[in-house]
């Protein structure tokens, strides 16, 4: 039986992270420049390219796992502990990394935005657990 709600949230996470990863790859230099200023007064000031690389990998792998989970659910009817479950967990971890960065930079509006993404990500972990 196909569960539509988890598939919709997995699609939301996949779109979010794959598009964000694509943007980071396409405009690496611009992202590094902007983030260098954003994190200028933090412990990440000299680590921006490295930190951005970590976030890029987390986002792309999260997106791929979410897409794979959707396909797995549609083809194999796997609902519990499938690839989507692990994609949702990695999505939550990725969002926690992003939240940490926003809080570190004292960008509280940005941190609040991350929470909006975190809620459905946790919800889909709950649904697929």
Automatic annotation (TrEMBL):
InterPro entries: DoxX. The chain crosses the membrane at residues 47-71, 83-104, 110-128. It is found in: Membrane. It is a multi-pass membrane protein. GO terms for cellular component: membrane. It holds the Pfam family DoxX. Its main location: membrane. The keyword Transmembrane applies. It comes from the Bacteria. Keywords: Membrane, Transmembrane, Transmembrane helix. This is DoxX-like protein. It comes from Flavobacterium aquaticum.
